[in-house]
Amino acid sequence: MHESVINPIYLKAFNDFRAKARALADTEDVFVLPQKAGVKKDVLFLAGTHGDEPLGIELMSLFGADKAYDWLVANEKAVTLNQRFVDCDLNRSAPGAFGSDKYEERRAAEILLKVKSYNYVVDVHNHSLSTRTFIILTKPSFADLLLAAQFDISDIVVWLPSERRNTGPLTEFFEPAIEIEANRQDKERLIVSVKRFIGQYALPITKNNLIGKNIYWVYGKQFKKAEGWRDFEATRVGGEEFYPFMCGQYSGIGCYKMMKIL
Q: What is the pLDDT of residue 157?
């Protein structure tokens, strides 16, 4: 697909990220996840960023904490109320503000202060789609891609806002950090995937980590949805071929459009 469909504000980032992703899939070089000095533990898992998404908390109750990782309930009040948020969407409120009168903005600031004590952040969500579990990268970061590559989750989606703004997802403000968007029916498989990640995240990363993985870039919206469209399955409208994403998830949007870059 031609680069003309890419938002101009992201064109350089798109070209750089695509080149690095394709190089990783083809190189004999070996990579490791970055390490910082003076961290408390390596990995912080976030659960319950949205209070009506319980899967991360269910996983947290199974895994607990360890010398290498911790779990944190991100939006405690919303979880207690079993609703998406209290005052505003926590996953659109980072970097937050300690003095805000909105709970989620204060909470975002608290979480981003806490994550400085870790090397990596994994924010576990669950979705209501019929599609499979996938990973979202909220910024075109090679370090984020390396973190995603250590999970045995096939689909990796780079999803950036349509315009630059001062607030956004928690994972946008820490590196490396990823979101897992899990299908509720994938719980048992996700347990295995997280357990495997915990055992191997420090191992070298090679092109073999990308075998069987697909990397997509969200570039636009399709407002009218055709029957039979499915997430991650190529379709065509006129002369444009794209991969649907989030089919029917948002009012007034048939789906988001993705291109496959690997």
A: 98
- Within a domain: residue 13? no
Number of domains in the chain: 1
Task: Please give the Cα distance from 262 to 260 (Å, whole number).
Answer: 6
**Tokens describing residue 183:** 């299908």
How does DSSP classify residue 11?
A: H
In a domain, 245, yes or no: no
pTM (predicted TM-score): 0.97
How many angstroms separate the CA atoms of 112 and 256, rounded? 29
Read off the amino acid at residue 216.
Y
Q: Which amino acid, 174? A: F
**pLDDT digit string (tens) for 150-209?**
999 999 999 999 999 999 999 999 999 999 999 999 999 999 999 999 999 999 999 999
CA–CA dist 93, 188 (Å, integer): 31
More reliable by pLDDT, 182 or 250: 182
For the purposes of burial, counting CB atoms within 10 Å of the CB of 239, is it exposed (0-12), middle (13-18) or buried (19 or more)? exposed
- For 119, the domain range is 26-210
Q: Are 54 and 126 in contact, with CB atoms under 8 Å apart?
A: yes
224 in Cβ contact with 238 (< 8 Å): no
